[in-house]
TrEMBL record:
Organism from which the protein derives: Orchesella dallaii
SCP domain segment(s): 31-160
Keyword Signal: yes
Protein's name in the database: SCP domain-containing protein
Upper taxonomic lineage: Eukaryota, Metazoa, Ecdysozoa, Arthropoda, Hexapoda
PANTHER family, A to Z: CYSTEINE-RICH SECRETORY PROTEIN-RELATED
Superkingdom: Eukaryota
Keywords: Signal
């Protein structure tokens, strides 16, 4: 049911951005966003945190940021209150699952017994951050590079809040 709703919302949004001609419109962008959405939510499930909801405002921000990051120098300097994950690939879009797995694989550096802020795993901790509830994606290709951006609200990676928001992976008890 949630997926049906997400597809409907994403389709409506795709029509909107194509009509406004704000953003490069490609026919499979909606499907790409949906694959990212599903990949991330299936990783969250493993950590027993609720799935994120798709959010139009965050999508608009992520699309804008994806464009900016590839075309404007120092665009990382923008301060925003929402969380952000990014992936910069080559001239073609990376598989959505590859992007999600790259972010998720930073978990290898995370020590659940000694939780806290460290720049080496912030894509992972934001991805499964418990109190983040919505997400939006942007993807843009220019100058032989593709930027994939995810924006999260409320922002994760807050110092002092890692223990209660980065939940260990659920392990089935052995009998
Ligand atoms: C969607 O994201 C915007 C921007 O961060 C936020 O202000 C808004 O509350 C979010 N909507 C929901 C339903 O979470
Ligand atoms: C996230 O992952 C990307 C790509 O692997 C990396 O460049 C970036 O530094 C990571 N951290 C954050 C906070 O985005
Ligand atoms: C993530 O880690 C797994 C297990 O170590 C590995 O098989 C996979 O290739 C990695 N994926 C990416 C995108 O780094
Ligand atoms: C993109 O890559 C091609 C092939 O390597 C190269 O010829 C071209 O100059 C590159 N374009 C930009 C904008 O970097």
């Amino acid at each position: 049911m949630n997926q049906v709703l997400a597809v409907t919302l994403l389709s409506l949004f795709a029509i909107l951005i194509c009509n406004e001609k704000v953003i490069l419109c490609e026919s499979d962008t909606t499907a790409y966003h949906l694959r990212l959405y599903n990949s991330i939510n299936s990783l969250r499930v493993k950590h027993t945190v609720a799935s994120l909801k798709w959010n139009r405002t965050l999508t608009e921000m992520a699309e804008y940021f994806a464009t900016r990051i590839l075309t404007v120098a120092n665009s990382f300097d923008i301060e925003e209150s929402e969380g952000i994950n990014f992936f910069i690939g080559g001239s073609t879009r990376p598989a959505a699952s590859l992007v999600a797995d790259t972010w998720y694989n930073e978990s290898l550096s995370y020590d659940f017994n000694n939780p806290g802020y460290n720049a080496i795993y912030l894509n992972f901790t934001q991805l499964i951050w418990k109190s983040s509830t919505s997400v939006g994606f942007g993807v843009y290709t220019a100058n032989n590079h593709t930027a994939v951006i995810a924006k999260f609200y409320p922002a994760g990676n807050i110092r002092g809040k890692f223990r209660q928001n980065v939940i260990p992976k659920y392990k089935k008890l052995r009998r």
